[in-house]
Automatic annotation (TrEMBL):
This is 6,7-dimethyl-8-ribityllumazine synthase. It comes from Gossypium australe. The lineage of its organism: Eukaryota, Viridiplantae, Streptophyta, Embryophyta, Tracheophyta. Catalyzes the formation of 6,7-dimethyl-8-ribityllumazine by condensation of 5-amino-6-(D-ribitylamino)uracil with 3,4-dihydroxy-2-butanone 4-phosphate. This is the penultimate step in the biosynthesis of riboflavin. Belongs to the DMRL synthase family. GO terms for molecular function: 6,7-dimethyl-8-ribityllumazine synthase activity. The keyword Cytoplasm does not apply. One of its GO terms (biological process) is riboflavin biosynthetic process. Its EC number is 2.5.1.78. Keywords: Riboflavin biosynthesis, Transferase. The keyword Zinc does not apply. InterPro entries: LS, LS/RS, LS/RS_sf.
Length: 225
């Protein structure tokens, strides 16, 4: 507190705002106040409000925002040279899995994957897909593993156990090996649903999953090494 020449009382007080910014209130007289804001080279925003008879201009400092270019990493389906793939196929329900495999191989050819860069591994059923996919992934001979099978609901709860186990097995194979393992296993209510998705009116899921395998292999090979 200090008295100036005309007897007015000057009080300087520091107030901390929620974000740590400081303002100084210095009344011109006993009934009014003025602000002495801190000097700052940063951008600032101000607002005014009434506070117990004082007119307060509050200033908040904010750092200058520097924007940088955002990188978008996307796998390519056209750069397939040098990429190697394994396809694990369940023999059970072969009437479904065989056209799924044919759709996958046809897609690989369309996207210029060399046939010598594709290995097809047959397993008894969908339940065995996961462990084989993991072994292939850990061999480091392949850029992606495509898993093909068909689990169709029957009269017992066997369907639920197998479908859940297969999905978990394929996921674990990819996580444990570090190689993309693509889930191309159909889980259908009946045979008609399965056939419709193996080249029927609903398309060929084997072909779709092969395209996913190409994109993931490219993403890992070019961006995520």
């Amino acid at each position: 507190m200090a008295l100036n020449g005309n007897g007015c009382c000057w009080i300087q007080e520091r107030i901390l705002s929620g974000n740590g910014c400081g303002v100084f209130l210095t009344p011109r007289s006993r009934s009014s106040a003025a602000i002495l804001p801190r000097k700052s080279t940063a951008l600032s925003f101000s607002s005014s409000f009434q506070f117990q008879g004082f007119v307060v201009d509050r200033k908040q400092s904010s750092s200058s925002i520097q924007t940088a270019a955002v990188r978008h990493l996307v796998g390519s389906v056209t750069k397939t040279q040098g990429l190697r793939f394994a396809v694990v196929v369940a023999r059970f329900n072969e009437i479904v899995t065989k056209p799924l495999l044919e759709g996958a191989l046809d897609t690989f050819r369309k996207y210029s994957v060399n046939e010598e860069d594709i290995d097809v591994v047959w397993v008894p059923g969908s339940f065995e897909i996961g462990i084989v996919a993991e072994r292939l992934g850990k061999s480091r001979n392949y850029h992606a593993i495509l898993c093909i099978g068909a689990v169709i609901r029957g009269d017992t709860t066997h369907y639920d156990a197998v479908a859940n186990s297969v999905a978990s097995g394929v996921l674990s194979a990819g996580l444990n090996s570090g190689v993309p393992c693509i889930f191309g296993v159909l889980t259908c209510e009946d045979m008609d649903q399965a056939l419709n998705r193996a080249g029927g009116k609903s398309g060929n899921k084997g072909a779709e999953c092969a395209l996913t395998a190409i994109e993931m292999a490219s993403l890992f090979d070019h961006h995520l090494k």
